[in-house]
Amino acid sequence: MLNPTAGYSASEEKQEIWVYLEPGEDALSSVSLELLGKARLLADTAGYEVKGLLVGYGLLELAEDAISCGADAVLLVEDQRLTQFNVEAFTAVVTQAVLEGRPSIFLVGATHDGRDLAGRLAVRMQTGLNADCTDLALDPDRGILVSEVTGFGGGIIALLECPKQRPQMSTVRPGVFPLPIHDPKRKGEISQLKIDLPDTCFQTSVLKKEEYDLVDLTQADVLICGGRGVEGNFDSLFALAQDLSAEVGATRPPVDDGFIARERQVGQTGVVCRPKIAICLGISGAFHFIVGIEKADIVIAVNSDREAPIFDYADYGIVADVAEFVPALNRALLERKEHSRV
Amino acid sequence: MSKRHIVVCMKVTPKPEEILVDPATMLIQREQARSEINPPDMNAIELALQLKDQSDARLSIISMGPPFFEPYLRVGLAMGADALYLLSDRTFAGADTLATTYVLAKAVDRLGDVDVVICGEESSDGATGQVPPGLAEWLGWPLVSLAIKAELNRSGTQIIVTRDSHGRAEVKSSLPAVLSVKSAANQPRFMDFDLKEEAFEQVPLIVWGPDDLDTEPDQVGLKGSPTVVTGLREAEVRERRRQRLEGPIDDVVHQLIEILDPYLRTP
Ligand SMILES: Cc1cc2nc3c(=O)[nH]c(=O)nc-3n(C[C@H](O)[C@H](O)[C@H](O)COP(=O)(O)OP(=O)(O)OC[C@H]3O[C@@H](n4cnc5c(N)ncnc54)[C@H](O)[C@@H]3O)c2cc1C
Ligand SMILES: Nc1ncnc2c1ncn2[C@@H]1O[C@H](COP(=O)(O)O)[C@@H](O)[C@H]1O
Fold first, then answer.
1. B109 with B117: CB under 8 angstroms?
2. Mutate to test the pocket of ligand 1, among A156, A224, A303, A324 (most ligand atoms within 8 A of CB)
3. Range in A207-211, A240-244, B263-267 with the lowest mean pLDDT
């Protein structure tokens, strides 16, 4: 078993916030940019520096983007063997970089790969990991990162700290923080780190891969969310979404029941969205879900139960059966379309 | 070839709707809520049973938690697991991910001959999928997360896993390894009624505490948890207009379209 000696203590830290930069399709993933934006704000109040850590291959351009989005510097580790994410190899690389740089804070996006990396890294560093934070604050006097998580049955917010061990690690889901403004005039240093990476770090290999279209609910202007009350009939929601140029999301029960992909789960353990309009169909309004649509400009709720809590979190509430409402809205949209043609 | 040994990590979680928090200690009052096997762990045991069907493996369940977990975990025996270990001690309580994974890893270490550890994707009571990578790290084993299917190769030295992370991928891993199973990836089988009586009445529950696991007292439970809860408050929710749209459905829909109109792209 692992010999737990890897981390460092608060007295050995540097006043730096590091953001793990995860490459997306051909740009940095949105959650990496969101974290850079938040890290910049935290750093400015406390006089810390923000550094991005970017691991992969052929990523120089993305490093420049990170500077434009708020990083003071980017540490780049490139190796052809790192073209694809591999949690053991990436953990080895990140460990070496972090032990050399000794940041006070290390932030990771709570994506599939980010979760795996953060989980391994925290144990290797023998430090705390606050997962799925909904807000972060930095107490400048104590140098302590205060992470906010919702949970414990919903409606309650807990503040978590990691007083002694370093780095202070938190993960944040996509969409929780707004995208920072891209400022191409910002200057920063990009440095290549040389890391020792033996082949034995690669204990798994990908034999075959078939990518789906990436779903990104965080960027949708109109979001239609279905809950258990939709009774699995998500096809009708997708049809409606097409008419409204919308995306379809869901609460956890239909995801657990296999009616819709997990990527589309909205809420605390799904994605946090910031659409102009969120339409909630057959959803009771559990707090775990509500955090996912709290940043919507307008919330519309349709539920057959007049007393459903969702109505307290909605701008417009409609007491109706989803199975009647959806076709009625479809018909009305169709009429509107025909109307505008004449 | 000696028999493979597969371990499933299971926990028992309170039903989400019924959880209360003690404002003084800031700890979850589990006793107030009815419990169930953490639903993703049902998918984990199903995948483990599929491996057992293929390769005639031995299947052990490990769980860190209080004694009341026992009857829930016995369902796993009735599904086809062979042994049940409860890692339980007063000092294990209040563990965060680091302290939880430490105890789980110690148990796997003590079992000694384990080839694969299988976890659920996440626990439903607030934690977030950090146990599988943390456990893999303590053990120094590779991790394959979000598995939906797995197959051991003939000689039992490698495992081929189909995982689902924004697409299907087939991944080959050396053994021993840790897997996490994507929630809802499979249909957990029912209890086997022929096994039920034995599972509930004859298979012993093995309880391991600090002495059995040789754990360091300052690495378990609250003491071994680097994260601390420093505050707890009610979440504020944004005030909304809370206006009802009333009338026959077709009227309501038209009112709605008027509200939506400025936001909709012109058709
Ligand atoms: C740690 C943790 C994390 C969680 N994370 C999330 C998360 O990220 N996202 C999430 O959504 N949930 C999450 N949950 C689950 C959450 O607590 C709720 O259980 C869930 O949001 C409820 O989903 P629902 O509203 O679809 O189902 P229900 O609560 O069952 O509500 C269904 C609603 O549909 C209405 N209805 C039924 N039939 C019809 C009909 N024909 N027409 C109209 N209305 C109808 C009912 O009146 C009811 O209000 C989490 C829970 C925990 C413990
Ligand atoms: N106390 C525990 N005992 C046994 N297994 C656990 C425990 N906590 C977490 N796990 C396993 O780790 C998985 C992920 O949990 P978590 O990281 O807590 O979201 C669960 O689905 C279980 O398989």
1. no
2. A303
3. B263-267
For B83, counting Cβ atoms within 10 Å of its Cβ (0-12 exposed, 13-18 middle, 19+ buried), the class is middle
State the Cα–Cα distance between residues A234 and A254, nearest whole angstrom: 9
Rounded mean pLDDT of chain A? Answer: 93
What does pTM read for this prediction?
A: 0.86
Distance A45 CA to ligand 2 centre (A): 37
Short-list A12, A118, A100, A142, CA closest to B98: A118
Q: What percent of chain A has pLDDT over 90?
A: 79
Q: Which residues pair with A73 in a beta bridge?
A: A51, A189
The CA distance from A233 to A325, in Å, is 13
Ligand 2 atom closest to Cα of residue B120: 21
E strand residue ranges, chain B = 5-9, 12-14, 20-22, 27-29, 35-37, 58-64, 83-87, 116-120, 143-152, 158-164, 167-174, 177-181, 205-208, 228-234, 243-244
pLDDT at A236 over 90: yes
For position B14, what pLDDT does the model report? 84
The length of chain B in residues reads 267
Q: Are B223 and B217 in contact (CB under 8 A)?
A: yes
Contact A317 B233 (CB under 8 A): no
Residue ranges in B56-130 assigned as alpha helix (H): 70-79, 97-111
DSSP secondary structure letters along A202-228: --EEEEEEEEPPPP-GGG-SEEEEE-G
Copy the structure tokens of residue B203: 């298979």
Calculate the dihedral angle through the C-alpha atoms of B23, A268, B148, B11, rounding to the nearest 10 degrees: 0
As a whole number of angstroms, the distance between CA B110 and CA B210 comes to 12
Looking at chain B, the number of H-run helices and the number of E-run strands are: 7, 15
> What count of other Cβ atoms lies within 10 Å of the Cβ of residue A164?
14
Amino acid at B165: S
The per-residue pLDDT for range A292-313, each reduced to its tens digit, is 998 899 999 999 999 999 999 9
ipTM field: 0.87
pLDDT at B267 (0 to 100): 45
Rounded to a whole number of angstroms, the CA Rg of chain A reads 22
Cα separation, A285 vs B222, in Å, equals 33
Average pLDDT for A110-116: 95
Total count of residues recorded for chain A? 342
Asked whether the bond before B23 is cis by omega within 30 degrees of 0, the reply is: no
Best of A120, A133, A279, A294 to disrupt the B interface by mutation (most B CBs within 10 Å)? A120
Query: Is the per-residue pLDDT at A152 higher than 90?
Result: no
> Minimal CA–CA distance to A176: which of A308, A319, A57, A295?
A295
